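The data layer described in this paper is built around a simple, fixed record for each protein. We quote a single record here, exactly as it is kept in our systems:
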Amino acid sequence: MDSTREKEEALLRSVVTAGAVVPRKRSVGRLVMHSMVMFGREFCYAVEAAFVTPVLLSVGLPKNLYSLVWLISPILGFMLQPVVGSASDHCTCSWGRRRPYILGLGIIMLLGMALYLNGDVIISAFNGERDKQRTWAIVITMLGVVLFDFAADFIDGPIKAYLFDVCSHQDKEKGLHYHALFTGLGGALGYMTGAVDWGQTVLGYSLPSEFQVIFFFAALVFLICLTLHLRSIPEVPLRDENEETKFLLEVTESYKYSSIEEEIKNGYLKSTCTEIKAAAKPGNCTVTACTEDQKRMTLKSLLKTLLSMPSHYRYLCVSHLLGWMAFLSNMLFFTDFMGQVVYQGSPYAPHNSTLYLTYKTGVEVGCWGLCVNAISSSVYSYLQKILLPYVGLKGLYFIGYLLFGLSTGLIGLFPNVFSTLALCSLFGVMSSTLYTVPFHLIAEYHREEENLKLQDGEQTGDQGRGKGIDCAALTCMVQLAQIILGIGLGLLVSIAGSAITVISASTVALIGCCFVAFCVRYVD
């Protein structure tokens, strides 16, 4: 009897250990380690922003293919993001649900960066014919840009879902602020790294070009940050549903299900035992759903699922779409706006002319403006924690959109070097807002739903939508914004010039400001 009792107690302890309890408080060090991946990701993003255009020009990419490069990645991301979000909700890898996807996407990021920064060198090593070298260099470079953008955009969803899975509500708030902080720091360091003339350094003399030097630093930084992230907080893996059911029967034979329910109502357990899923076999890493219907889930049914979300989730997605449309329409063309409108230069003038050199100076100053944006984003992510108790999530969301709309409007109406650089600091407010507040609201929505289910005595297992697909839905809005801008804004710029970008950014941001104030739902 004693041995049977001990066995049952061990089983019950394994229930608690498997993750049914509310996640314990995480140390600051663990949250910082978890956030380091955002530093590495944004560092690589900044490198791409600084070098991808010179690289594409250097390999001879025709102008009519530029839009194709920037459209392929967001289209792929928009179609596949919900699939990966749902699949990660049901991944049965013993390493956890999110980390296998984060690792895989991180490897794709490195591969893409290696291809677009080293494409011409790779092709030169394998092909000696000059004409074929140029063609293949263009293909490899385009492939690298598409792969990098695809993975870098994609990886944000699993990272946020990973944070939500392993942290308590208070730690989720801290984690999102740390994410925004390190995103800004990584971007600032990346832009500054791109501003250094590496050709005059020891590494510059040792490697074929400065592109290889930049790749060395970016790959090293990202690998270190990714490793720290993956080692930060252990995940609770899923278990096969049949084994879970058998396990529950063993536990509840003597303890009775009601006793567990009592612990739920007393606050010891966050969810019923059916929510617990541990790894069935070590190394068994398969992406499967818990039911046959979920296994047969296609993109069409996933999109139907997204459309069937509660209305407050859909309104949040729309506000996120408006925010990213405003932010990207300004950021993608900002250096060109500085060169053509603020400095009155021309990218089409001969390269030895005053007009072209003036334009190049404006682009360089624009890069420093983006660096100011990244630094202010880090600072504001810290200030958010101070402001949150006073203005709430609604105030933070409204302030971010309002300040960005006003700053871009002023820049468009009064283009001046010093005022533009000063107003770039307000771009960081918008950046930090987009990276934190919407995901904070997702966490609030899920916590509210779980509390309501517990009050009604219902199970809070992973039935239906999970955090992964909700984070994926938000991330999809970034890709959708890129698709809309890639199709429409390029035409507007060719007709009205670069000034239209900041005016359109201001208009969309102010529309989003109204939407955030009147349509988005906030949990009391």
The CA atoms of residues 115 and 144 lie 5 Å apart. The two ends are 50 Å apart (CA to CA). Confidence is low (pLDDT under 50) at residues 4-21, 240-299. The chain has 19 helices and no strands.
